[in-house]
Amino acid sequence: MNRKIIVCLVLLGVLSLTLIGCSSPQKKPETPPMPAPQQATQQQEPDITVFMHETGEKKTMKMEEYLAGVVAGEMKNDWPVEALAAQAIIARTFTLEAMETKGGVPERGTQASTDIKEFQAYNAKAVNDNIKKAVQMTRGMVLTYQGKPIKGWFHASAGGITATAKEGLNYREAEPPYIESVQSPDELAPADIKNWTIVFPKEAVMAAMAKMGKKVNDISSIEITQKGPSGRAVMLRVNREVEVSGPELRVALDSTKLKSMLLDKIEVGEENVTFAGKGYGHGVGMSQWGANRMAKDGKKPEEIVTHYFKGVKVEKRWD
């Protein structure tokens, strides 16, 4: 065979081996470059129309002015400024997400409402320098996932561990990718939040069940049949036959009394039902008492919120 042809065949063979990954084991493929961080959508601070439920009027104000009243309504104004700032990021995110997905509060014809049952708590009278500083230091900051504002869920205390949305809220849609069960430093919460016991008359429990379409004539037993990732009661079985949603029963009974579904025990007596547990709230998203502790430990607002929401970015939407 011609010498030149032999050399070409040898070179082709070496090239083929390289292409199929048979090159020298010492040579590692280069790590692909990390994608550039997504740029925030720059815009002007919006004016929003707020339904003032105390007076029934509709008031237009700057977004940041509105948020100061929300933070003052949702968190104690003497808390560490970094915790208040984390709440400001959550409140701003909650507001923008609601505006973008459903137009705010369409039944009122406004972007927001001061009625906590409709939107968020609001207390302009409690706004102090601490609140103003917290809002200003996070001005325009929003939590986003894939460029869109997330659902800014929060609660008073996680009892040490947060819940998934399906577990804590009986969320009917797909679990948001940014919600995971994480450890939460809630040890600064008051004693009656860290561990609590509540007694309901059987009649109250039966009335709550009836509101849920689960009518029973008596209660002989209640057992937890399903728990979520954090250990919260997701499903209960009453009288060994009636299945009841844990989060829905909590709301039907009174969520300020049955503080959490992170339960340690349920006892059925002759006339009463006793629940014992820890934490306060649905447990999804940011724990306010956890944020308090993290702020006292020197964490920045961005560190606090990204602890509770995974894979999110803090974007600055306006200056």
Automatic annotation (TrEMBL):
Residues 24-46 are annotated as: Disordered. Pfam families: SpoIID. Residues 37-46 have a biased composition (Low complexity). InterPro entries: SpoIID/LytB, SpoIID/LytB_N. Residues 55-145 form the Sporulation stage II protein D amidase enhancer LytB N-terminal domain. Coiled coil: none annotated. One of its GO terms (biological process) is sporulation resulting in formation of a cellular spore. It comes from the Bacteria. This is SpoIID/LytB domain containing protein. It comes from uncultured Sporomusa sp.
